[in-house]
Amino acid sequence: MVFEVDITLLAVTFALAVRFAVLAATLPMLDLRSVPALWRIALAGMLAAALAPAVVSAVPPGAVSLAWQPLVTEAVRSMVIGMMLGFTLNLVFVAVRFAGDVVGMQIGFSIVNAFDPMTNSQISVISQFYHLLAVLLFFATGAHQVLISAMFQSCLALPPFSTGQLTGGAWHLLREFSSVFVAGLRIAAPIVIVLLLISAAMGVIVKTVPQLNVLVVGFPVKIGVGLITLGASLVFFRQVVTGMFAALPDQLARTLATMQ
User: Fold this and answer.
1) pLDDT exceeding 70 applies to what percent of the chain?
2) Per-domain residue ranges for the chain?
C-alpha cells in the first residue's frame, strides 16, 4: 500500500490555519478568556482544511518550498492578513463600545464601571450592554456568513505563498479608523442631545430658583431621562448597527484590494 502526500496542500492548509487562527482570536465572543485556545485552533484548522483544496489552484506554480525561511515568511504574512481582516471587522464593535462610553459618561454611569474578568480591565456598563446587543445583531443579521465568505475571498485574492503589498492595507485601515468616532457619535447622538437639553433646562431652573440644589436634583433627573432615552433609542441603534454590518462586505473587499 502506497500513501501519497501532497506537500503543496499541506503547506497551504498550514498557511490558512495560521491566518484563520489569528482572525478567530479577534472575533466577537471568541476573543474572551473563557473560550479555550484549543477551540479557536480547532475552528481555524477545520476552516483551513475545508478551503485549502479550492485555494491550491490559486497558488503560483513552484512557490511552495519546504525550506524554513519561506514557511516562516508565509506564516508571518498570514498572521498580518488575519489581523487586518479582524481589525476591519472590529471597527464596528469598537465604534459601539465608544458610543457606550460616551453615553455612560453623559448619563453619569462612568463612576460605576465594572471589572471584566475576561479582559482584566474596567468596562462601562452601557458600553458592555451596547457590545452584547451588537454581537446579537451580528449573528441575527447573518454577518457571520459574510465573514466566512470574506475569508474565502481573501484566500483567492491573497493566496498563500504569493506576493502582495500589505503596507497598503495598513494605511487603508489607518484611514478607516477615523470612521469609528463618527459612527460612535451617531449611535450616541440621541442621548447626548436629550441630556444636553436637560442640562440647559436645569441651568435655567437653578437661575430661577437659587435655593434648589442642582447636584441633588440634577443627577437623578439625568439618570432617569437618560435611561428612558436609552430604551427609546434602541430602534435607532439597531438601524445604525445593521447598516454598518450591511457595509461590512464592501469594507472587507476594499481592505483586500489595498493589500493586492
Assistant:
1) 83
2) 7-259
Q: Please enumerate, as own/partner, the contacts of 251-254 that have beta carbons within 8 Å and a separation of 24 or more.
A: 251/88, 251/91, 251/176, 252/85, 252/88, 252/89, 252/146, 252/147, 252/150, 252/153, 252/154, 253/150, 253/153, 254/172
Q: Is the pLDDT of residue 1 over 60?
A: no
Say how many Å lie between the first and final Cα of the chain, rounded.
Answer: 43
- Judged by DSSP in three states, 122 sits in strand
Q: In this structure, are residues 161 and 70 in contact, taking their beta carbons and an 8 Å threshold?
A: yes
Q: Are 191 and 229 in contact (CB under 8 A)?
A: yes
pTM of the complete model: 0.80
Residue 32 has pLDDT above 70, yes or no: no
CB 43 within 8 A of CB 29: no
**For residues 233 and 12, what is the distance between their CA atoms, to the nearest angstrom?**
47
